[in-house]
C-alpha cells in the first residue's frame, strides 16, 4: 500500500504569499462589470480494531490529484446588492521591506472589495503572538465573523461547533457553491477535512495539482567539490561525506541536528515514526501497510536509528552540544551557524537559500549550496516511511453569528477563478501580465522592483495568502537558477518515494476525531509517554544511557499505557477510514 498522507500540498508558509508556499492559480482574468458572472515490526503489538483492516487499508492508499475539470469556478459579482462589512481576525508577518503594514493596504484585498461589495475590517495580530492572542479572544468570547487558522489554534472542529463558536459549514454550502462542488467531486479530500460525524469546520487551502517540494536538505557544494566527493544518498555515503567535512573543514556541526535528536527526513529512512517539531508536528504513530497502527519509538528500526546517531555523535559528525541547538529557535541563530562554515549539511526552505549563499560569501567567497536527496538506507530503495512537510491547511472558519451567510459567500469567492488569481498574482497590468499561452507572469514591478523592494515584499503588497485553490508551481518564475536546481532534486526524490509500495505511513492526528473520553485519556497518557521518549532519545544518542537499555526503555513505555494509546488512535483511524465526506 502507498502512503496515507496526502501529496496534495506543496510546503505552505503561513505568511502572506511567501515564496515557499508557492501559492497560485491559473485562471482567466477578472471582469469587473456589475452585476456579472465572471467566467473563469515494532515492540508494541499492533492494535487491530474489529473489522478495521479493510477500511484502514483503504485509507492508506494514495489520494489522487484534485479533480477540477468539472468544477465551475465562476462567480456572480458583486456578492451583495448593497455594501456590506465583515470582520476578519488574522495574523500578519510582512517581509521587512514590504511597503504595507496592514492587509487593508493590500492591493488584492482592495480589489476584492470593489468586486464583491464586501468591506473587511481586520483584527491583525503578529504571528509571534498568534496563539496568545487567539486564546485571549476565545476567553473573552468576542469573535470576528471570520477567523484565519481557527482550527490550527483551537484544534477540534467538532468541539468548537458543539460549543457554538463556529458554524458547521455544511449548513452554508449553498452560499459557497464552488467549495461545495469541489468537495463533492473530491471525496478523498472531503474525508480528511470533515469530522467522523461529517461536520465541516473550515475552508481549506488545497493545491490544484501535485506540486514541487520546497523544503529539504542542502549541502555545502564548494566543500563537496574540494573533497572530490559525490552528493550522498545512502546512510554510509552521508557518513563518509560528513566525516570528510569534519576532517577537512572543521565545522562545529557537520550535520545540523537540533535538540530533539530527530528530524522527519532522517528518521523516515529507518521507518521510525518519530517526527521532530521542526517538521511541523510531533506524531509518533505509524500505519503499517495492512492499516494497523503502531507506535514508532519502540520499534527495532528506531533503535537502529539511535545506534547510527550515537555513532555519529561519538565521531563528531553531530555536534557535541546539539542538545542545546534549537532548530526552531531564533532564525538569526540558525543562519549564523549555517553561513559561517559551521555546518556542512542542513535542512532548508527553498526561499532562504539565496540569502544563505549571499551571507556565506561575505566571509567565504567560495560558499555555495546544492540540494541533496533525503537520506536512504540503500541507494536502490525508496524511503520506507512516508512523511510530508505539510498537509491540508485550514484557512477560514466562520463564527456563529448574524453574518455567517455573508462570511460563507466571501470565503467562497477566494475559490473562484478571479479570486484565486487575485490572491496569487494581484492585478493584471501591474503585478502580472498574460504570456502568449494565457499564463500569468509576474512583471518587473514584482521581480525587479525599480524602488528596490524585494520580490516577497512586493508580492505582499499585491497578493494575499487567502488563495484556497492554488497552483503550487506558480512560483517557478520567481526563483533563481540555484533554487530551481535544489527544488528539482527534492521533487524528483519525493516522486520516487511516493511511488513505493508496502511502506509505512505517518498517521496525521489532525485528521482524526477522538471522542471526549478518548481525547482526555489520550492527552493524559500520550503527554507523559512523549516526554519520556524525548528524554531518552537524547540520552541514547549522547550515550548517557547505553543502547543496551533499549528493551528496558520499551518496557517502561509499555507500563505507561502505550498499548491503550495505540488502541485509541487505531479506533479513531478506523472511524476516519469509514468517513463518507459531506
Secondary-structure map:
Blueprint: E1 36-38, H1 53-59, E2 75-77, E3 84-92, H2 107-116, E4 118-126, H3 130-140, E5 146-148, H4 150-154, H5 157-162, H6 177-185, H7 187-193, E6 203-207, E7 215-220, H8 221-226, H9 235-249, E8 253-255, H10 264-267, E9 285-287, E10 293-295, H11 300-314, H12 331-338, E11 343-349, H13 353-360, E12 369-372, E13 385-386, E14 393-398, H14 404-413, H15 417-425, E15 432-434, E16 440-442, H16 444-447, H17 455-462, E17 469-470, H18 481-498, E18 504-506, H19 516-542, H20 550-559, H21 562-577
Parallel strand pairs: 3-4, 3-5, 6-17, 8-11, 13-18
Antiparallel strand pairs: 1-2, 5-14, 6-14, 7-11, 7-12, 9-10, 9-18, 15-16
Helix pairs in contact: 1-21, 11-19, 19-21
Question: How would you describe this protein?
Answer:
The chain is of the alpha/beta class. The protein is built from 21 helices and 18 strands. Helix 2 (107-116) links the parallel strand 3 (84-92) and strand 4. The chain starts with 35 loop residues before the first strand and ends in a 5-residue tail after the last helix. Mean pLDDT is 83; it is low at 1-64 and 275-282.
Which keywords apply here?
alpha/beta; six-stranded mixed sheet; four-stranded mixed sheet; 21 helices; 13% strand; disordered N terminus
Instruction: Supply Rg.
Output: 24 Å
Count of individual helical segments: 21
Q: Report the sheet with the most strands, covering strand number, pairing sense and barrel closure.
A: 6 strands, mixed
* Strand elements, count: 18
Binned strand content: 5-15%
**What structural class do the secondary elements suggest?**
alpha/beta
Q: What's the arrangement of strands in the largest beta sheet?
A: 4-3-5-14-6-17
Helix content: 25-40%
Amino acid at each position: 500500500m502507498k502512503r496515507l498522507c496526502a501529496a496534495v500540498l506543496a510546503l505552505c508558509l503561513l505568511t502572506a504569499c511567501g515564496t515557499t508556499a508557492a501559492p497560485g492559480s491559473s485562471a482567466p482574468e477578472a471582469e469587473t462589470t456589475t452585476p456579472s458572472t465572471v467566467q473563469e515490526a515494532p515492540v508494541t503489538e499492533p492494535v487491530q480494531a474489529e473489522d478495521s483492516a479493510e477500511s484502514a487499508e483503504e485509507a492508506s492508499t494514495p489520494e489522487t490529484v484534485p479533480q477540477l475539470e468539472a468544477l465551475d469556478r465562476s462567480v456572480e459579482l458583486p456578492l451583495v446588492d448593497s455594501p456590506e462589512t465583515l470582520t476578519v481576525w488574522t495574523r500578519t508577518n510582512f517581509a521587512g521591506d514590504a511597503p504595507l503594514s496592514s492587509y487593508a493596504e493590500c492591493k488584492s484585498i482592495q480589489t476584492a472589495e470593489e468586486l464583491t461589495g464586501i468591506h473587511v475590517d481586520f483584527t491583525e495580530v503578529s504571528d509571534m503572538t498568534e496563539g496568545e492572542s487567539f486564546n485571549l479572544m476565545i476567553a473573552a468570547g468576542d469573535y470576528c465573523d471570520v477567523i484565519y487558522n481557527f482550527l490550527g489554534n483551537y484544534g477540534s472542529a467538532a468541539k468548537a461547533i458543539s460549543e457554538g463558536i463556529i458554524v458547521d459549514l455544511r449548513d452554508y454550502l449553498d452560499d459557497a457553491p464552488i467549495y461545495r462542488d469541489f468537495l463533492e467531486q473530491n471525496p478523498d479530500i472531503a474525508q480528511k477535512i470533515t469530522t467522523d460525524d461529517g461536520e465541516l469546520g473550515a475552508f481549506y487551502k488545497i493545491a490544484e495539482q501535485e506540486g514541487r517540494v520546497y523544503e529539504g536538505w542542502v549541502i555545502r557544494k564548494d566543500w563537496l567539490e574540494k573533497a572530490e566527493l559525490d552528493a550522498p544518498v545512502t546512510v554510509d555515503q552521508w557518513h563518509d561525506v560528513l566525516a570528510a567535512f569534519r576532517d577537512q573543514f572543521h565545522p562545529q556541526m557537520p550535520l545540523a541536528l537540533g535538540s530533539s535528536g530527530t528530524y522527519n527526513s532522517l528518521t523516515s529512512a529507518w521507518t521510525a515514526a518519530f517526527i521532530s517539531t521542526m517538521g511541523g508536528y510531533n506524531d509518533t504513530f505509524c500505519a503499517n501497510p495492512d492499516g494497523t497502527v503502531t507506535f514508532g519509538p519502540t520499534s527495532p528500526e528506531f533503535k537502529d536509528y539511535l545506534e547510527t546517531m550515537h555513532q555519529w555523535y561519538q565521531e563528531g559528525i553531530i555536534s557535541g552540544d546539539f542538545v542545546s541547538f534549537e532548530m526552531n529557535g531564533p532564525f538569526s541563530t540558525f543562519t549564523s551557524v549555517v553561513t559561517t562554515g559551521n555546518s556542512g549539511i542542513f535542512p532548508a526552505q527553498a526561499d532562504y537559500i539565496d540569502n544563505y549563499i549571499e551571507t556565506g560569501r561575505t566571509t567565504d567567497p567560495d560558499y555555495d549550496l546544492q540540494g541533496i536527496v533525503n537520506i536512504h538506507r540503500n541507494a536502490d530503495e525508496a524511503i520506507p516511511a512516508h512523511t510530508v512537510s505539510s498537509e491540508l491547511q485550514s484557512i477560514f472558519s466562520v463564527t456563529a453569528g448574524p453574518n455567517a451567510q455573508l462570511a460563507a459567500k466571501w470565503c467562497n469567492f477566494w475559490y473562484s477563478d478571479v479570486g484565486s488569481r487575485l490572491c496569487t498574482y494581484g492585478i493584471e497590468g501591474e503585478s502580472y501580465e498574460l504570456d502568449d499561452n494565457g499564463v500569468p507572469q509576474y512583471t518587473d514591478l514584482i521581480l525587479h522592483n525599480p524602488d528596490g523592494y524585494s520580490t516577497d515584499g512586493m508580492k505582499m503588497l499585491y497578493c494575499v495568502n487567502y488563495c484556497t485553490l492554488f497552483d503550487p508551481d506558480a512560483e517557478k518564475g520567481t526563483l533563481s537558477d540555484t533554487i530551481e536546481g535544489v527544488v528539482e532534486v527534492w521533487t524528483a526524490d519525493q516522486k520516487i518515494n511516493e511511488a513505493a509500495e508496502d511502506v509505512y505511513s505517518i498517521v496525521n492526528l489532525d485528521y482524526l476525531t477522538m471522542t471526549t473520553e478518548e481525547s482526555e485519556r489520550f492527552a493524559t497518557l500520550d503527554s507523559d509517554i512523549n516526554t519520556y521518549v524525548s528524554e531518552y532519545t537524547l540520552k541514547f544518542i549522547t550515550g548517557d544511557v547505553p543502547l543496551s537499555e533499549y528493551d528496558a526503555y520499551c518496557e517502561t513505555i509499555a507500563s505507561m499505557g502505550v498499548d491503550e494509546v495505540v488502541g485509541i488512535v487505531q479506533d479513531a483511524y478506523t472511524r476516519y477510514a469509514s468517513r463518507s465526506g459531506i
